[in-house]
Design a protein that fits this description.
The chain has about 60 residues and is an all-alpha fold. It is built from 3 helices and no strands.
Length: about 60
Amino acid sequence: MLSEAMMVANTACYKLVADMPYETRIQSIVDYKDRIKKVKVKKPAARDIRLTREQYVQVSVQHY
């Protein structure tokens, strides 16, 4: 039982960690558009937007 729970937890954690760069990219786009361009963009629309390296650098790394 404990072994099976560990396997489920390991699989869930692996997926969460694997998704972190994607989620960070989307949040960076939302933050860039909001703070720099002063335009509201929701996450679904942000998925189709790409930023340049210079634009990513303009987005603050700290969140609140």
